[in-house]
Design goal:
Blueprint (H helix, E strand, L loop, with lengths): L11 H11 L5 H25 L4 H7 L3 H8 L3 H5 L3 H12 L7 H20 L11 H5 L4 H20 L14 H11 L10 H9 L11 H12 L7 H10 L1 H17 L5 H10 L2 H4 L3 H17 L4 H20 L17 H8 L10 H16 L7 H12 L2 H13 L4 H12 L5 H19 L13 H9 L3 H17 L1 H18 L2 H18 L4 H17 L1
Helix pairs in contact: 1-2, 1-4, 2-6, 6-7, 9-11, 11-13, 12-14, 13-14, 14-17, 15-18, 19-20, 20-23, 22-23, 22-26, 23-24, 24-26, 25-26, 26-27, 27-29, 28-29
Organism: Thinocorus orbignyianus
GO cellular component, one term: Fanconi anaemia nuclear complex
GO biological process, one term: interstrand cross-link repair
Length: about 550
């Protein structure tokens, strides 16, 4: 069936023509066409309402002379009435056209007509339990209207589910030649009813249906409608059905991933636990156990990261998503689950294996050695003559960025444990300045090393002032390279958290740095990650925890 392209804004002629052709949707062709256009129609009606509510009813009728015919016809189409919020939107539109103070017979007649339509809409919006208002047939069966229609829907769903699973129903075997077109038709007719709770078993069966056809047999409109309803939490589906939906329909997977990113970026989250809860609730980490889903989600993350120039919020989301995915993969009980190299098919598997080791799998005394091992492998890979292109370098950095927890630990280890600093500083320099050539990275190392050496001379002091950190502050505020600024700020923030003298000046210093550099988001993100790790590790003293929480409270007001 040919589908219409996008509809011009408030194109009443287009939709009136459609409404006339549909009538009351008594033929299969008209029913299919209605189902195909329901999402578009609902958007159109919503735009009409948004326009009408700012207009006088007389002006609205003069400006849109076809509006009465259109609304009147749509109110009698059962498919339109049953779809999502279309019925409510039609009521709103009619209310806008109602004249509160009719001035002439035409307006009085229009009001009377609107009242009759509203009565029709209201009476069809619920099934009355009053026996006198039900049909004699239903009453004779001993049912109320509500019970009757509820049982009717449930029986229909049971019948269709059995059909789709290949059982014989009334002599019909779904394994026949026409099964593909039959399944497609069922998916189309589900469109107006996807949010009906009783329909969930049928939605699940359709999503899990495997007909053996080379092309997708479920209608794309059905898949989009189910995905939208799931994302808006209008329906609840088993995980297997959601995963099958995303495997069958790439646009739905893309929309789910972007919806998650929008959700996380648009709301202020106070902790990494909240971020993890939202991500886990999306089911995307669990669905990513299938390598195809993981790679597509990962590609979307990569594109968003490039578009946002590596904002800390997006980096944190990627890192938490990766942790949750690895947990889900580890907890999988399937006999034949995919190996992790199927998800990270990079040419340097030893580096992947080292990054995949969770920090809490190792004793804290081995962290520094493990980080040096990661740094050495990464350095060899980056300085390899075969790693020439910017794309190659970005792919290596993007791999490392998934495991940002190791980078945060590297910065902590520099200030908390006796380590050889060069390897760990190089690791941080690459993470913050991946685009630098060798000569530029050497200069970054020189500046980072100078700040590090200065900080290592201070921990023995129990009383510090901002003046003691003046040289480091000068490096942060006077460099024109944001990457160096972020690296030095990371080291300074950790120094303030993990040295007793730093606790005294932490709030004043952080306020000074954020005012001078505009790095509130970066520092807030770092503190949230640190708080999460401390909560799970539980080894830090209470004073550090108090300073951390106080800093977070203050910074959240600025972000």
């Amino acid at each position: 069936m040919a589908q219409d392209t996008t509809v011009p804004k408030l194109d009443f002629e287009y939709w009136l023509d459609k409404a006339i052709k549909w009538g009351q949707a008594t033929t299969v062709e008209s029913q299919q066409d209605v189902c195909l256009h329901l999402p578009q129609l609902q958007e159109f009606l919503h735009r009409v309402y948004e326009t009408l509510k700012h207009m006088d009813s007389i002006v609205a009728i003069q400006q849109f002379p076809l509006i009465g015919q259109l609304l009147g016809r749509l109110c009698w189409n059962p498919f339109v009435m049953g779809y999502d919020e279309s019925q409510k939107t039609l009521m709103w539109c009619l209310y806008c056209l109602y004249s509160s103070e009719p001035q002439n017979p035409v307006e009085l007649k229009a009001n009377s007509w609107i009242r009759s339509l509203l009565c029709h809409l209201l009476s069809s919006s619920k099934w009355e339990s009053n026996e006198a208002e039900t049909s004699p047939f239903i009453s004779a069966l001993g049912y109320t209207s509500a019970d009757y229609y509820c049982h009717l829907v449930k029986n229909m769903v049971v019948s269709l589910v059995a059909e789709l699973r290949g059982h014989w129903i009334n002599g019909l075997n779904m394994q026949g030649r026409d099964s593909g077109s039959r399944v497609n038709a069922v998916s189309l007719f589900c469109l107006p009813l996807v949010t009906l709770p009783d329909l969930t078993p049928l939605l699940e069966t359709l999503l899990l249906y495997q007909g053996g056809a080379s092309k997708e047999i479920l209608s794309s409109e059905f898949l989009e409608a189910v995905n939208d309803a799931f994302l808006k939490k209008k329906i609840s589906l088993p995980e297997s059905a959601v995963f099958s939906l995303w495997l069958r329909h790439l646009p739905s997977l893309e929309k789910a991933t972007l919806h998650l990113l929008d959700q996380l970026v648009s709301i202020q989250l106070n902790s990494l636990e909240e971020v993890a809860c939202v991500i886990k609730d999306s089911l995307l980490p669990q669905a990513a156990s299938h390598p195809a889903i993981f790679r597509i989600v990962n590609e979307i993350f990569k594109n968003v990261l490039l578009e946002t120039d590596g904002t800390p919020e997006v980096l944190t989301i990627i890192q938490v998503f990766t942790q949750l995915f690895l947990q889900s993969h580890q907890n999988e009980t399937k006999q034949h689950k995919f190996p992790l190299k199927a998800y990270f098919p990079y040419r340097h598997q030893p580096l992947v294996s080292a990054l995949l080791r969770h920090p809490f799998e190792l004793p804290t005394t081995q962290w520094s050695q493990h980080l040096k091992h990661i740094s050495d492998m990464l350095k060899a890979l980056v300085e390899d003559t075969n790693t020439r292109s910017v794309a190659d370098l970005f792919e290596i950095w993007f791999l490392v960025a998934h495991f940002g927890e190791w980078l945060d630990i590297a910065a902590e280890q520099l200030l908390k444990a006796p380590v050889e600093p060069d390897a760990l500083l190089w690791l941080l320099a690459f993470y913050y300045c991946p685009q630098n050539e060798n000569q530029q990275r050497t200069q970054t190392m020189v500046e980072a090393q100078a700040v590090y050496n200065h900080l290592m001379m201070l921990p023995s002091r129990t009383v510090l002032s901002i003046k003691d950190l003046e040289a480091a502050v000068h490096t942060v505020t006077n460099t024109d390279q944001r990457c160096i600024q972020h690296l030095i700020t990371h080291l300074l923030t950790n120094f303030l958290l993990f040295s007793s003298g730093g606790h005294m000046i932490a709030q004043e210093f952080i306020y000074h740095i954020t005012e001078a550099t505009g790095t509130s988001k970066e520092i807030c993100s770092l503190l949230i990650r640190t708080a999460y790790r401390i909560n799970h590790n539980g080894e830090e003293n209470q004073r550090t925890v108090r300073v951390l929480n106080d800093l977070l409270q203050k910074l959240k007001l600025k972000v």
